[in-house]
Amino acid sequence: MKLNLEIEIGKIKFKNPVLVASGTFGHAGEFKQFIDLKKLGGIVTKTITLKPRLGNPPQRIVETPSGMLNSIGLQNPGVEKFIEEKLPYLQNLRVPIIVSVMGYSIEEFTEVIKKLEETQSIHGYELNLSCPNVAYKETPNEPPGFMTVKMFAQEEGMIAGVVRGVRGVTRKTLIAKLGPEVSDIGAMASAAERAGADAVSLVHTFVAMAIDVKTRRPVLANKTGGLSGPCIRPIAVRMVWEASRAVKIPVIGIGGIMDAHDALEFLIAGASAIQVGTANFINPRASIEILEGLKDFMKKEKLRDLKEIIGSLRT
Questions:
Q1: CA–CA separation, 222 vs 302, rounded Å?
Q2: 125 pairs with which residues across the strands?
Q3: Which of 261, 278, 265 is nearest to 226 (CA)?
Q4: Domain at 128, CATH number
Q5: CB-CB neighbours of 211 under 10 Å
Q6: Which of 73, 98, 209, 262 is the most core-located residue (most Cβ within 10 A)?
Q7: In whole angstroms, what is the distance from residue 86 CA to residue 180 CA?
Q8: For the chain, what is the mean pLDDT?
C-alpha cells in the first residue's frame, strides 16, 4: 500500500512530518554517522544570533525524572560564521532547512534574517521567541538601574511585533516558536497568525530548577534552565490541541516525543508535523525510528494519507 506522508507548511513541501528540533541536532553533521539525513522531513538548526555567543558556564545540563534541564545559553558562532561554516554542509542534504533565529529586539531579529536572506539555500525560519526583550518596559517610570525582563513569547503584542517585522524582510516560510508559560496559548498562536506567520511550533522548554541538597546550591551554573523530555509531553499535547483549535495555519508539535506513539498523540491533537528534541540525546536514531513507526501505524490502520490522522481527535 502506497502511503502519503507529505505535508505542506507555508511554501515548504515536506516529504514526511518528522523534523528535528533546534538545539538538539546541532547543524546535522553530528548525526550523519547514525542516520540517513535525507530521510528526515526537515532540519531545524541550532538557534543563530547576530553575534557569536559562548553560552553559559558549566554545569549546563542535568538529568531530571523523565526529563532534562539545560542551560546552554544559545552557544552559536553568530550568523556570519553560520553562513560561512555551517550552511554549505546543510545545503547539500536536499532536505528542507529551517534556521532558528533569535534576537533581543525586533530590529535584531530582522537584521539576522536580512543576512540569511543573502543566501539561496534556506527554506524558512523558526523564530525563537522565548528570549528576553531588552527594550521591554513594564511601566513608563522605572527607577534608575531597574529593568523588567519579559520574553517575547509571553505577550501577544510582542509576538506579533517580531513576526510582522520579520515578515517585512522575507517571503520565506515563517514559523513562530511559542513558549508554554502563558495563560492562553491559543491567543498567542492567533497573534502570530494575524501578523503573518505561516505556522506556529510549540512548546518551548519550561523554566525549571534542580538543587543539590548537600551544597544547597542550584545544580546549573545559571540557576535555572529549560525543562524538556517526556515529563512535559502531556502539557505540550494539550497546548497543541488548544492552539490548533485557535488558528487555521499549521501547528508543529514539540515536547517529549520519544517514539511513534508520542508523535501520534500530537498529530491526532491537531499538529501537522512534529519535532524530535530531547530523544536525540538518548537515541540518535530516534527520528528515523519514529518515522518508521508512523508508517507501520498507517499500514496497520489501513490509512493511506497522513491527513487522515491529523486533527482526528474524538471528543
A1: 49
A2: 99, 174
A3: 278
A4: 3.20.20.70
A5: 12
A6: 98
A7: 30
A8: 93
List the domain range (segments joined by +) for residue 199: 7-58+73-210+227-308
Report the relative pairing of strands 7-9 and 225-228 from DSSP bridges.
unpaired
Q: Return the closest-CA partner of residue 253 out of 305, 269, 197.
A: 269
Residues with catalytic function: 131
How many Å apart are CA 181 and CA 198, to the nearest integer? 22
If one counts the domains in the chain, the total is 1
The answer, as to whether pTM is greater than 0.85, is: yes
Nearest partner of 252 among 17, 15, 6, judged by Cα:
17
> Is 5:15 a contact under the CB 8 Å cutoff?
yes
Inside any domain, residue 313: no
210, 236 Cβ separation under 8 angstroms: no
Q: Sheet containing 67-70: give its strands across.
A: 61-64, 67-70, 225-228, 206-208
Residues found in the chain: 315
**154 in a structural domain:** yes
